[in-house]
């Protein structure tokens, strides 16, 4: 298991002002579901180096759906084997193979959410 890409993304996200809860590598679906219930994040990030990780990403997103949490979060996936087709297959909102680009996507989501909040006030 490799966590280099995850760690790079985490460090860049933290430097950009995001609070990051790093669950580590090779975590079960339940770990994500419980953490989302606990902290109510805006964004969930999943990373994989090998194609084996892609089904685990799908299972995690499906687990969030089953728990009634999927509509509460945006999901971004990253890693070498991801692309638009994979993104659609696993049910993520966005994908990237570049940590800096991933942080920009997340920043855009936060700005969108802030804008939507300001419109409803």
Automatic annotation (TrEMBL):
<dbReference type="GO" id="GO:0046872">
    <property type="term" value="F:metal ion binding"/>
</dbReference>
<feature type="domain" description="B12-binding">
    <location>
        <begin position="1"/>
        <end position="120"/>
    </location>
</feature>
<dbReference type="GO" id="GO:0046653">
    <property type="term" value="P:tetrahydrofolate metabolic process"/>
</dbReference>
<dbReference type="GO" id="GO:0008705">
    <property type="term" value="F:methionine synthase activity"/>
</dbReference>
<dbReference type="InterPro" id="IPR050554">
    <property type="entry name" value="Met_Synthase/Corrinoid"/>
</dbReference>
<dbReference type="Pfam" id="PF02310">
    <property type="entry name" value="B12-binding"/>
</dbReference>
<protein>
    <submittedName>
        <fullName>B12 binding domain-containing protein</fullName>
    </submittedName>
</protein>
<dbReference type="GO" id="GO:0031419">
    <property type="term" value="F:cobalamin binding"/>
</dbReference>
<dbReference type="InterPro" id="IPR006158">
    <property type="entry name" value="Cobalamin-bd"/>
</dbReference>
<keyword id="KW-0170">Cobalt</keyword>
<dbReference type="GO" id="GO:0005829">
    <property type="term" value="C:cytosol"/>
</dbReference>
<dbReference type="InterPro" id="IPR036724">
    <property type="entry name" value="Cobalamin-bd_sf"/>
</dbReference>
<dbReference type="GO" id="GO:0050667">
    <property type="term" value="P:homocysteine metabolic process"/>
</dbReference>
<keyword id="KW-0479">Metal-binding</keyword>
């Amino acid at each position: 298991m490799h966590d280099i890409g995850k760690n790079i993304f985490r460090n860049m996200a933290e430097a950009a002002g995001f609070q990051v809860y790093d669950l580590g590598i090779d975590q079960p679906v339940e770990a994500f579901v419980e953490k989302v219930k606990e902290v109510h994040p805006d964004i969930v990030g999943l990373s994989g180096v090998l194609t084996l990780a892609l089904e685990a990403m799908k299972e995690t997103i499906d687990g969030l759906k089953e728990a009634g949490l999927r509509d509460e979060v945006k999901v971004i996936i990253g890693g070498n084997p991801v692309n638009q087709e994979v993104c659609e297959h696993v049910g993520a909102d966005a994908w990237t193979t570049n940590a800096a680009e991933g942080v920009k996507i997340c920043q855009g989501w936060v700005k969108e959410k802030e804008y939507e909040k300001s419109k409803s006030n």
